UniProtKB/TrEMBL annotation:
The chain crosses the membrane at residues 43-62, 83-103, 196-213, 319-342, 354-377. Residues 1-19 form the signal peptide. This is Uncharacterized protein. It comes from the Eukaryota. Keywords: Membrane, Signal, Transmembrane, Transmembrane helix.
Amino acid sequence: MLFWIFVFLLARQSSLTQGHPDLLSRAATEASCDCTINSCRTLFNIVWGCLATIFACTWVALHQNVPDPDSGHFTLLMRKLRMMLMTIIAPEVIVAFAARQFVSARWIAKEFDVSKTHGFFCNMGGFVSEEGHPISTEKQLPAYIPAIRKIKKADIEDKSKGDTLSKGVAIAQGLWFVTQCFARVSQHLPLTELEVATLAFAVLSVIICLLWLHKPLDVQQPIVVARSEVEIDPLQEEDAPPIQEIPFLQQIVYAIMGGYDKYSPISSTSVPSFYSTEIGTKDNQMLATLAGVLGVGSIFRGIHCAAWNALFPSMAEMWIWRISSVYIAADPVLITLLAVAADKWAPNNDIADAVFAILFMVGPVVYPLFRLFLIILSFTTLRSLPPSAFVDVNWSNYIPHL
């Protein structure tokens, strides 16, 4: 509720700033009369603060699954850059992915009496059999859970490249940026389009970091566990299907909706990039997906739409921003709702499948295009900022004093 109040105030403030030139004149006068080193910011300060926050949102906050043990440094770098690009273009996918893993990890922890860290490690392909295959399915876990319980939580966390403190720094960076934006709105100071776009990333990064708080960061080598002598591995080598490379676009769909039909742990040495263990409570994972794409994702899209009446250097840029904001707000909602409807209520409906197929084919092409428009406009609009955009927040207003 507080967030949507802030979005309303941001949209209202943008409208007031655009519709009342006197407000700009007054801000310009105040800036010229009282613009000291402590009350004024430069264009470099604006850009640097935004880029640092975006980096924390897309690099530090990104928790990947365990890669193939034989992957080289260049392969690992390209893998993370690809995930970083995905976070910038479609952050809702990462939110849905994190939500699915969170629900699955919590279910594993409760069902098999282990910690959430153990649950996340199963999700990310951190445990492998003596043959080197990931232990990542509900059918496999009973055979290996006695050995998994013997592994201490501290031993798993030791493989992580980041602890609670380092993750807290990323969360703090996002919260600090959100606080700055709140302060600017409350003091009737405009936000640049770059700050509006960064604010959306900052809010989502805090949510992603909280969902992945117990997930180890950048683990590159799995832990080998032995199968219990009294249990039989339900997945046998002779029954292994041939190895199939899952297209990246299809992995994105799996990240949102789940259902890795073409993936088999005994046909690989690592889990896919967007893999999440399919658990008994599949409906809960579906709710997590809807909460990620429709709920949390609406925050990201709503912030862009809140800049509807912001100042733009030209009318063309204003309308491109408006059209792009509306499209990214509507497209994921339509695709997600149609996918759920087709899966739950109309699994054999040809019309529903056809509409979903058209949207699914058009969406991955058009959606990144409009996201790219918003990213480009965030930087091009910096060439013509109102004088009040360079006035810094007066933090002394929030400090109790006589």
